[in-house]
Design brief:
The chain is built from five helices and eight strands. It has one domain: Gcn5-related N-acetyltransferase (GNAT) (Aminopeptidase, 3-Layer(aba) Sandwich), CATH 3.40.630.30. With 177 residues, the protein is α+β, with helices and mostly antiparallel strands.
C-alpha cells in the first residue's frame, strides 16, 4: 500500500504538492508570520524561499514516495500551508527520522487545522513507514506549534542544531503499542 497522496478530513483536503502550487507557495512564504515562526528569520527574499521550498518538497515526494501535503481548508481553492511527514535532512542529529511538520498562513491559524492535519500525518507515517517514533522540530518561542505538538501527544525530548547552527526543540511521539 502506497503512502496517501490525498486525504480528506472533515475540514481539510491534504494533497501532494506539485509545481502547480507555485502561486500558493509564494503566498505562504510572503506571509511574514511564516518567516517569524522559523526563528531566526532565514536570509533571502520570500519569493526565492518559496521556489526553493516547493522544489525541495516536490523532489522529496519523487525520491521518497511521501512528503508534505498542501493544506486546503474547505472553501479554499489552493493550499494555505503545508502539513505532513518528511525527512528533515537539514538537522544532522535527526537525519533519517520522520518529522511531522505544519505551517499555515496567519488567517488560517487558531482554527485547529494544524492539529487535524498533523494527526493524519502521524497516522500515515506510522501505518506506511513504521518508525519507532515521529518527531517535530520547533523553533524556541514558537509556542503555538509547541501546543499543536502537545495536542498530538508529543513531548520535548532534546534540542538539535540545523546545518546552519540554528537551535530547534525536538518533540517526539513514540509508535503506539
Amino acid at each position: 500500500m502506497s503512502y496517501p497522496e490525498l486525504i480528506e478530513t472533515e475540514r481539510l483536503t491534504l494533497r501532494r504538492l506539485s509545481e502547480a502550487d507555485a502561486g500558493a507557495y509564494d503566498a505562504i512564504w510572503s506571509d511574514p508570520s511564516v518567516w517569524d515562526a522559523l526563528s531566526p528569520r532565514p536570509d533571502g527574499d520570500p519569493a526565492a524561499a518559496a521556489v526553493r521550498s516547493l522544489d525541495k518538497q516536490v523532489r522529496h515526494w519523487d525520491e521518497h514516495g511521501f512528503g508534505l501535503w498542501g493544506a486546503i481548508p474547505a472553501g479554499e481553492q489552493a493550499p494555505v500551508g503545508w502539513i505532513g511527514a518528511w525527512y528533515p535532512d537539514f538537522v544532522p542529529d535527526v537525519r533519517g527520522e520522520i518529522e511531522i511538520g505544519w505551517t499555515l498562513r496567519a488567517p488560517f491559524r487558531g482554527r485547529g487545522y494544524a492539529t487535524e492535519g498533523a494527526r493524519e500525518a502521524v497516522a500515515a507515517a506510522f501505518e506506511h513507514h513504521g518508525p519507532d517514533r515521529v518527531i517535530s522540530l520547533i523553533a524556541p518561542g514558537n509556542d503555538p506549534s509547541a501546543a499543536v505538538a502537545a495536542r498530538l501527544g508529543m513531548r520535548q525530548v532534546t534540542e538539535a542544531q540545523t546545518d546552519l547552527g540554528i537551535l530547534l526543540r525536538v518533540f517526539e511521539l513514540p509508535r503506539p503499542g
